[in-house]
UniProtKB/TrEMBL annotation:
Keyword Plastid: no
Keywords from the UniProt entry: ATP-binding, Nucleotide-binding
Residue span(s) of domain ABC transporter: 126-365
Protein name: ABC transporter domain-containing protein
Region (Disordered): 28-118
Length: 394
């Protein structure tokens, strides 16, 4: 029997026919079925494991995303809380600054009301700017941010109690102490850079007499005049004029050690004007003198104020420190009141009296003793010197 030629289709059919008996045989074999069940179980377990792993990964991702969202929300809340706290602090700071500014303006306005405006047309002889002096081993400044101007042709009374800072300020002006902060301009020159030039036109009477005990009155005047650069002839002429102005021509040949306390003080004050000094600093010039000498010193200062007697020109800048209010009221064209190193007010006597009161007169009546007529009385009238009570803080 001859078979027909085979084709691919016929071969596949043949293989299928051949494989059918084998498939039927496998279905009937229990071992083959068990193996197939095991394979199915393994596949199912593997799929379950993959599903569990996928679910865990998904859950983990979701948890991470949730944590990230929660963290972002917390950061946002924290940022907002910080911003609100910063806004509150900023508002509180602005409110405090505004309150401080208002308080400062109020204090400034109140303080400015105690300072008379600068007179027009006046020439500044000495200008103190932001002056501070702190001595070593101390915490409180002796002079605290002082600003004041002293004018030519005027006597400025520097009024304050003992320890107020008057002497310290005058010592800085004359170059005895260096300033801790700020500076002083004397006739336009800075004391920190031009003190040698300033001393040529500067005169000073310290708080205590500094006299040569074995020099006569005339020799003192001649010595200081020549020390200021005067010739012998100029010094002798100035000596003669000053002896007459001071009122002690009869004492010209008397040594300083034999002069009375009042005479020594008058000589010390006069020496401050020697050499045509244009800026004169007097530290309590009438301290410890009798009433007559005090009055004569006042007359001398009023006479030398303009400076024309000794050819100084337009006038001297005279700075006078005192703790006597009547003296400041009488001599001062302007009065500056200092307390605890601070300047509290400055102006003319009329201006300060308008600010703090005009003073008053006190009349006392007392009975005279050891007089036959017991009904006789004596009336004493005196001017109360406590003119500016509100200028000194307690």
């Amino acid at each position: 029997m001859v078979l027909p030629p085979t084709t691919p289709q016929s071969i596949s059919d043949l293989q299928l026919l051949t494989a059918l008996p084998e498939a039927e045989a496998s279905l009937l074999d229990p071992r083959i079925q068990v193996e197939e069940n095991e394979e199915n179980k393994n596949e199912i377990a593997k799929e379950d494991e993959q599903n569990n792993a996928f679910e865990k990964a998904t859950q983990k991702t979701e948890n991470k995303e949730k944590h990230a969202r929660d963290a972002a929300a917390c950061k946002h809340i924290e940022k907002r809380v910080k911003e609100e706290a910063r806004e509150r602090e900023e508002k509180q700071r602005r409110d405090e600054e505004e309150k401080e500014r208002k308080d400062k303006d109020e204090v400034t306005n109140k303080a400015n009301s105690f300072f008379e405006p600068e007179p027009p047309g006046m020439i500044a002889g000495v200008r103190v700017q932001e002056l501070v002096k702190v001595f070593p081993n101390t915490y409180k400044p002796a002079v605290d941010r002082m600003n004041i101007t002293f004018y030519e042709g005027q006597i400025t009374a520097f009024l304050g109690h003992n320890g107020a800072g008057k002497t310290t300020t005058l010592s800085i002006i004359t170059g005895l102490y260096p300033p801790t902060h700020g500076t002083v301009f004397v006739r336009g020159r800075d004391i920190q850079t031009h003190m040698d030039t300033i001393r040529q036109s500067l005169g000073m009477c310290p708080q205590h007499n500094i006299l040569f005990q074995h020099l006569t009155v005339a020799e003192h005047i001649l010595f200081y005049a020549q020390l200021k650069g005067k010739s012998k002839e100029q010094a002798e002429k100035e000596m003669e004029d000053m002896l007459g102005d001071v009122g002690i021509p009869q004492k010209r040949d008397e040594e300083a050690q034999y002069l009375s306390g009042g005479m020594q003080r008058k000589l010390s004050v006069a020496l401050a004007f020697v050499g045509e000094a244009k800026v004169v600093v007097l530290d309590e010039p009438t301290s410890g003198v009798d009433p007559y000498s005090r009055r004569s010193i006042w007359d001398l200062l009023l006479k030398y104020r303009q400076g024309n007697e000794l050819g100084v020109g337009d006038g001297r800048t005279i700075i006078l420190s005192t703790h006597h209010m009547d003296e400041a009221d009488l001599l001062g064209d302007r009065i500056a009141i200092i307390s605890q190193g601070k300047l509290y007010c400055s102006g003319s006597p009329v201006f300060l009296k308008n600010c703090f009161g005009t003073g008053f007169y006190l009349t006392m009546v007392r009975r005279m003793r050891n007089i036959k007529d017991p009904g006789r009385k004596e009336t004493v009238s005196a001017h109360d010197s406590y003119l500016y009570p509100a200028a000194f803080p307690l």
